[in-house]
Design a protein that fits this description.
With 435 residues, this protein is an all-alpha fold. The protein has a domain of 156 residues. Helix content is 85%, strand content 0%. The chain is elongated and about 115 Å long.
């Protein structure tokens, strides 16, 4: 078979061209099948994801749980050597990490969640009153701007009614949710089972992480070539550095913002210190916009009591945010994340649009990992041009083809030698002549 009338020095060029056409045809066929059976494929993928959800929870918990374990292993018995010392160090680190995790869970259940719920209830209760007060305050001062008074007079907006309508919709939605109590209980039980399985899997992964890493490294050495192994090792190391630095930095920053905000509000005698500090600390986990959201909610709660103190709170939060952003966060994270603000915005929008709140939380370290890998590659090739890139690509493809040709030739020679040996043995062991 030939697709060209020109003489071809490569006898397998036509086969490679045919293989590309077959791959394109198979890709088009697969795309058509996906479009045709999209609903069935989505249902099957949903079932597969539900089955794999405990595994995903276990992997995420194992990574987060491994952060304090590594910290304790670096500081507990640092000079002790030997298998027994390593086993004892691992056991003590896991026990201390479990106690730390349990303390964080108790803190979340007993302090953070109640304060957030109280803050939401306070905002829902005071929103209509604040809206009407702002409307009256604005109307009393309209005489200072006659042109604005004339323009506002043509518009009749019932802000209190708008707020009450929104709250009634929220209450109706809450009632619908409460009406499905049985489904909520069943879903909660399923989630608890999945979380329990994930915790058991996470403990096993952390306890045997060296053995698992050795086995997966051996599997990669068998399945992947050397260049791919080096790339994936570098990518995994970079992702580990970025994710660990980002996670620790966000948690430390959130804790500092929440605690310092609460203490500062108590010193300044600003109301709702506990609720405002908790809301600000939790919302600061959201990249880029979280601090502004938490600060706005806290300012609204304080403004329901004293508007002047809400302005003092705003000034305090601005100063505190500058200190944490310029002093604390860089010292905790260091240069390992280093994602510019523009790409943080793109990451938040992209991740939030695709995966919601989980995408917002994970998009920044994912983008930071890709950004750092790309930056390392560009720094390793400072004078690379498009022509040079194409030349290297072609040279790499030619080298791979040469290696494959040599392997084929060695296999053919080995097969021919084996056939010759078998033929010689068959001739030597031929049937004896008849008497």
């Amino acid at each position: 078979m030939s697709f060209s009338t020109r003489p071809n020095p490569d006898p397998r060029a036509d086969w490679r061209r045919l293989r590309r056409l077959l791959l394109v045809a198979l890709g088009l066929l697969a795309g058509a099948l996906i479009v045709r059976f999209a609903s069935g494929i989505a249902h099957w993928l949903g079932g597969l994801l539900r089955i794999l959800r405990p595994l995903a929870i276990g992997l995420i918990l194992a990574y987060v749980f491994n952060l304090p374990v590594r910290f304790f292993e670096r500081h507990l018995l640092p000079r002790a050597e030997g298998k027994r010392a390593r086993t004892l160090r691992r056991a003590l680190s896991m026990v201390l990490s479990l106690l730390l995790s349990l303390g964080c869970a108790v803190l979340i259940v007993q302090l953070i969640i109640p304060n957030i719920i109280n803050g939401i209830n306070l905002i829902a209760a005071r929103a209509p009153e604040v809206a009407e007060s702002l409307q009256l305050w604005f109307e009393e001062r309209l005489h200072l701007m006659p042109w604005l008074e004339k323009w506002i007079g043509q518009i009749n907006i019932d802000w209190g009614g708008i707020v009450r309508t929104l709250l009634s919709r929220i209450i109706e939605g809450t009632g619908n949710v409460l009406g499905a109590a049985g489904m909520i209980v069943a879903g909660t039980f399923r989630v608890l089972v999945e979380v329990f399985l994930g915790i058991m899997l996470a403990l096993y992964i952390v306890a045997t992480k060296e053995d698992l890493a050795r086995k997966f490294g051996r599997l990669g050495a068998i399945l992947l070539p050397q260049s791919w192994r080096a790339f994936w090792r570098r990518a995994i190391d970079t992702a580990d550095q970025v994710f660990s630095a980002y996670t620790i930095g966000q948690l430390v920053t959130a804790a500092v913002l929440g605690i310092v905000t609460t203490l500062g509000m108590l010193v300044l005698r600003i109301p709702y210190a506990g609720m405002s500090g908790t809301v600000l600390g939790v919302s600061s986990l959201i990249p880029l916009f979280g601090t502004y959201i938490g600060g706005g909610l806290g300012m609204f709660m304080i403004a329901t009591v004293n508007p002047i103190q809400s302005l003092i709170y705003l000034l305090f939060i601005v100063i505190l945010q500058q200190i944490t952003g310029d002093v604390i966060y860089p010292r905790v994270v260091g240069p390992r994340v280093g994602l510019p603000g523009f790409w943080v915005l793109i990451a938040v929008l992209f991740g939030g649009g695709l995966f919601g709140i989980v995408g917002i939380l994970l998009a920044v370290p994912v983008f930071a990992t890709a950004y750092r890998l790309l930056g390392d590659w560009l720094r390793a090739n400072p004078d690379l041009t498009h022509e040079e890139f194409r030349r290297r690509w072609r040279a790499r493809q030619a080298a791979r083809y040469a290696v494959r040709q040599r392997e084929w030739a060695e296999a053919a020679d080995s097969l021919a030698g084996a056939e010759a040996v078998e033929a010689a043995e068959a001739d030597a062991d031929g049937p004896a002549e008849a008497p």
